[in-house]
Write a structure and sequence with these properties.
Distance between the termini of chain B: 37 Å
Order of helices and strands of chain B: EEEHEEHEHHHEHEHEEHEHEEHEH
Structural class of chain B: alpha/beta
Largest sheet of chain A: 4 strands, mixed
Order of helices and strands of chain A: HHEHEHEHEHHHHHHHHHH
Largest interface: A-B, 22 and 31 residues
Oligomer: heterodimer
Shape of chain B: globular
Distance between the termini of chain A: 16 Å
Number of domains of chain B: 2
Number of strands of chain B: 14
Number of domains of chain A: 2
Strand content of chain B: 25-35%
Helix content of chain B: 25-40%
Structural class of chain A: alpha/beta
Number of strands of chain A: 4
Strand order of the largest sheet of chain A: 2-1-3-4
Shape of chain A: elongated
Largest sheet of chain B: 6 strands, mixed
């Protein structure tokens, strides 16, 4: 049994070695994807182009403007005397936000009377607008105290304390999801061609006449890609740490365990597809579609599961990446043990078992 | 060693194999002759346990094909019609893989590999990719891969497709050697010259077994002198005019010649005159020993006549 699995594994690895394009794609693509998406996929907003209309022209108003520019989020792109040209500046995208300080700003604040400043935002990109609004609120809030003096009674004080990702960098939040996405897509594609290729070339017919068992063929074809997947997972994780400063707080051993469970599920799914499809082309498309879309949309990678409609929340239960991402965030960002993410590992075990069982049943049929 | 009784396989309405029965003795070279789609491959696939018979039964090496496929698979070698090697692996790697799937490893593998190198003549090219080998070598390598575990029976499904005549001849020398060593060889072909090298030949047409015997026995369906070879101008058109002669049972084009099966050898002069009158001179008519192809064509005609009645 073991020797026949080994014979198949050696054969698959040799074929992979000869087919250097595929080998390179399987090993290199995750890393390339991680770099592309890691840099491109960011919800952090910086260098917001700001237009400033300071009608007050006082020390108080200048300090307010300064506070915006010193925050690091804004760059000043236009200084205006009145707010009428703002519309043009927005439509030509010269600026993305505008700060308008009224003429009586200093007088009102020194008299400790209520005043208002106007903050105008381009809302066509609501995601960015929301983030920018958050920054602006924070800056204004911090200025109010000093402007009105210590006598101002603040009804309450809210101190935000963000754990695990104190700078709220989106890359730290996204990289685990990205890792799951990349590993899922590459593992499903890797094995999706494994059986159908033999069918297309005609070697399956000869294999069927040998005493090799379905489970031996399945394991023999899965193991090499588990190896390849592990290598690219380790490489991606290293890059995430090196390039995106994703801290790895938890145990590397647990990380390896959940990653292997996740890979086993993905590879099993690929084999299952491979036994269904009649051509490599169909297998490839099925693999791409069935791994990419659910992992991108229904795993909590980008869109939080808790804010999905109930139906989609239910569908997301069968998306393995959901559990892997949850476990990964726990291990990598929080550094907690299996008592915290164990349920996700169990879900991954269940998923991998079901998928491998299905693949075995199909394999018995095609042998 | 191999037997079939009323073996039948249908695919929906289509009857691919229709009540086929035969016995193959140990060490025999048993040929299945028929055109494409005659049902030869379907018979082989049922015997190898790859396809369940719709009805009928069969045994290979003493095991029932319907229920003991696992035992059969350890005792047969199978060379499928499709190319059964990995062209992106080397000669040595292919041997190692196919040996592994058939539980041949360690010392035994080393020995069998040496045997395979000797048999194929590929010892010096063991590190060559199969993709780079000429067709004849690939075919011999495929055969040796199917024989690594020393099975008592081998099934060869059109093993020499797309191989040049010299390589085909060498391949058949290997088959003779195997038979001499007691290996039962079950081979399908649509080449008449290959069928002539079989101990017994089964003629298959449209799923039916038309005839099964040794070559000399098969040829006895013709009375002596009843097969004539006709050499004339424009043989294709001459063939059409032969229908006018009632003494001719059957006529077919054989390369540049015509072969005619006649009721009485005395008709020779009559044919000669008929064709010369028809403007196909010069005409030469002579009796010839029947070829296997004559037998095959005759059997198909008879079967079709039976069906029409």
């Amino acid at each position: 049994m073991i020797r026949r699995i080994l014979a198949t594994t050696v054969k698959e690895l040799l074929q992979l070695k000869r087919d250097w394009r595929t080998a390179l794609a399987l090993l290199g693509m995750p890393i390339v994807l991680l770099m592309i998406y890691g840099y491109a996929l960011s919800f952090d907003v910086t260098d917001i182009r700001l237009g400033v209309v300071d009608q007050s022209r006082t020390q108080a108003s200048r300090r307010m403007v300064e506070a915006f520019l010193k925050s690091g989020y804004f760059v000043q792109r236009a200084v205006l005397d009145d707010s009428r040209p703002l519309d043009d500046l927005f439509t030509t995208e010269t600026i993305q936000a505008a700060l308008v300080i009224p003429a009586d700003f200093a007088a009102q604040t020194s008299a400790r009377r209520p005043t208002s400043i106007l903050f105008v935002l381009d809302g066509s990109d609501s995601q960015t607008a929301n983030t920018v609004l958050g920054y602006a609120r924070q800056i204004v809030a911090s200025q109010i105290g000093s402007l009105y003096g210590v006598e101002v009674q603040v009804a309450y004080q809210a101190t935000p304390l963000v754990w695990y990702n104190p700078d709220l960098k989106s890359s730290i939040f996204l990289v685990p999801g990205l890792l799951a996405f990349i590993l899922m897509v590459s593992s499903v594609i890797a094995t999706s061609l494994a059986v159908v290729r033999e069918k297309e070339r005609g070697t399956m017919e000869s294999l069927r006449a040998t005493p090799i068992r379905a489970i031996e063929l399945l394991l023999g074809k899965t193991l090499p890609y588990l190896l390849v997947g592990s290598v690219s997972a380790a490489g991606s994780l290293f890059l995430a740490w090196a390039l995106f400063d994703v801290p790895i707080h938890g145990s590397l051993l647990w990380l390896a365990v959940v990653t292997l469970l996740f890979l086993a599920g993905g590879l099993g799914w690929g084999i299952f597809i491979s036994t269904l499809a009649e051509t490599q082309q169909l297998a490839f498309q099925l693999a791409l579609l069935s791994s990419m879309l659910p992992t991108l949309l229904l795993s909590g990678f980008i869109f939080p599961i808790s804010s999905m409609p109930k139906v989609l929340q239910l569908v997301s239960l069968i998306v393995p990446a959901r559990y892997y991402i949850a476990a990964l965030r726990s291990i990598v960002l929080k550094g907690v043990g299996p008592d915290a993410w164990g349920i996700n590992a169990v879900a991954l075990i269940i998923y991998a078992s079901i998928v491998l069982l299905l693949a075995t049943i199909r394999m018995v049929r095609s042998l | 060693m191999v037997s079939a009784t009323g073996l039948t396989r249908t695919f929906g309405e289509f009857v691919a194999v229709d009540r086929v029965s035969f016995e193959v003795a140990p060490g025999e070279i048993f040929g299945f002759l028929g055109s494409n789609g005659a049902g030869k491959t379907t018979v082989i696939r049922m015997l190898c346990g790859l396809l369940k018979p719709t009805s009928g039964s069969g045994t290979v090496a003493g095991f029932d094909i319907a229920t003991r496929a696992a035992e059969i698979k350890t005792r047969i070698g199978y060379m499928s019609q499709k190319f059964s090697l990995y062209s992106d692996l080397t000669v040595d790697e292919n041997l190692r893989f196919w040996a592994g799937t058939n539980r041949v490893w360690g010392r035994q593998f080393e020995e069998r590999r040496e045997w395979a190198f000797e048999m194929t003549g590929l010892g010096s090219r063991r590190s060559a990719l199969v993709a780079d080998l000429p067709g004849g070598f690939r075919q011999r390598l495929a055969l040796s891969c199917a024989l690594l575990h020393q099975p008592p029976v081998v099934f060869l499904d059109e093993p020499t497709g797309g191989v040049d005549p010299e390589a085909r001849r060498r391949f058949w020398d290997l088959i003779d050697d195997l038979s001499a060593q007691g290996v039962t060889v079950f081979v399908t072909t649509h080449y008449m010259d290959e069928a002539e090298r079989c101990h017994r030949v089964a003629l298959m047409h449209a799923g039916e077994l038309l005839a099964l015997d040794t070559i000399p026995e098969l040829k006895k369906i013709f009375a002596p002198g009843s097969v004539l070879e006709i050499e004339c101008r424009d043989a294709a058109h001459a063939l059409e005019t032969l229908d006018d002669l009632p003494e001719i049972i059957d006529a077919a084009l054989f390369g540049n010649y015509l072969h005619a099966v006649v009721t009485a050898p005395e008709i020779v002069q009559g044919i000669q005159n008929h064709l010369e009158d028809g403007g196909f001179a010069p005409v030469k008519v002579r009796p010839v020993p029947p070829s296997l192809e004559d037998v095959f064509i005759r059997s198909i005609r008879e079967a079709e006549e039976r069906r029409e009645q």
